[in-house]
Known about the structure:
Helices cover 43% and strands 24% of the residues.
Amino acid sequence: MELRQLRYFVRIVELGSMGRAAADLDMVQSALSQQISRLEGELSTRLLQRTSKGAVPTEAGLAFFREAQLALRHADQAARAAQQARLTGSVSVGLAPTTASVLGVPLMRAMHERYPDVRLHMVGSLSGHLSNMLNARQLDLAVLFDTQPGRRWSVLPLLEERLFLIRSAQRGVRKPALRRKVALAQLGDEPLILPTGPHGLRSRLDTAFAQARVTPRLAMEIDSLALLMDAVDMGLGSTIQPWAAVGRYADAGERFVMAELSDAPAFRPAALCSLSDDELSPAALAARVVLGDCVRELVQSGRWVGARLV
């Protein structure tokens, strides 16, 4: 016996008609009739008497109707109690600087609105550091670019971000950023400012340059996104990053010009990684859902430029 069958039966008795109840419940009448037949079969008794004027409860149906109403009221009360109970606890979430520049504030706002009693611990660091922290159980969740499938994580693919060559607008590049494309083979003489070795984006770029048989010209290596973008803004070199790297600049369109990479690695995949479900607290499980919702909303609304859901 299912709660929905009780609701169906109660609505038929209240409206006095199978057809009217089906319309009210937005169901096909034959499907509703089938559910009632299953209920009667399980109870081994007839609950409704079909007449030319509609459907009326039998003596057994009338007794069942009163108890069904009570059961539904109790079920509704239980649902309200669960919805009104406030989730408590704490959750730690790791975001790389580029991801945090787009996702950080929306995630904090959404968690505050949905779960005000959950204490949120946000960690901003390079992807490699976040990976180590997740392995050490110092984080519950992290958005990572290198998921290394051998690790015992729960991994949910989130999105792919297009990569761009980003220069200072003061260097005289005139073409609109999103209308230009550039291949790795064209970047041999480009002075680049990149993060250092083992981290997600740099590792991906090094592999791509090697495959393209191009030796990149490194002007600087900077592991702080803010400092890296300040250096690019001053014209000290260019960088290869997703659009999120300039997301914190309200005047990014005037400060920078961007050329989309046309060949590998033309995009960077990002995944929501967490400890296994049995290791996560209810607060962490809730935060994982909220984070996924925030990502979808940002991408679908166009506020995460260059990103697509996967």
